[in-house]
């Protein structure tokens, strides 16, 4: 008896999934729109950083061939007293220009946020105008004010005080440059603080008034804690800007005739500039830039740690 073979039904072949699906097209469109930023950053941001780190291990005058010297450039700058003077000057002028600036900016922001102020928009523009003014123009004006026969010394003499050598004195130069920095960035920080103040609900202040809290208590126990994210941001940005101080000391000391290499006002960036474009030592200049980069990271991390210890990071904590 013949065996009957039953044929299995043929299974349908699954359709091949197209490569350009709707999801992939959406992702490609999104990456295309944001790609200009990453391309420009790679060309003008990432590449210079990597090349600077690479150059710091070579001896180069920008004309001849590059010669590998290892960590010799770092040994040269760390053994140079002028480098450490520039580092000290940068920290001192950073503190002298940043700390008073933040305090005054906060007070100005509180004043601008006050209901008693009838010309808020006008004052906001006036306080922000120094930030959009040319740094060179500002420095030239302040160079005249802080000259030996300038307005500041004239005012000190009328008050019965002796003249201060703002052009050549160790502390005089730092006071003049720090004043320029404070005047330029105070309004910018005040506007940021003002945006933070306006984000605080008014109901909290009304409840505090009902409980009998004074204005000082409201500032300490309500305003400052709720402004902590803005304070952290402003302090971080101001610290980074202070470490990169260049135009003010360079133009101010150049105007006074003492030159940008005077130890009273030389900063890390002016030291870097002199090494590269005056002395022709691009290797040591690159090593200085790397040291400045490391210092900026360390101070930024230190700011974040201090802010966290002061209560800026409350994530994961229960009330």
UniProtKB/TrEMBL annotation:
Residues 87-303 form the ABC transmembrane type-1 domain. One of its GO terms (biological process) is transmembrane transport. The keyword Glycosyltransferase does not apply. It is found in: Cell membrane. The chain crosses the membrane at residues 33-57, 91-113, 125-148, 168-186, 219-246, 281-302. InterPro entries: ABC_transporter_permease, MetI-like, MetI-like_sf. One of its GO terms (cellular component) is plasma membrane. It comes from the Bacteria. The keyword Transmembrane applies. This is Sugar ABC transporter permease. It comes from Paenibacillus faecis.
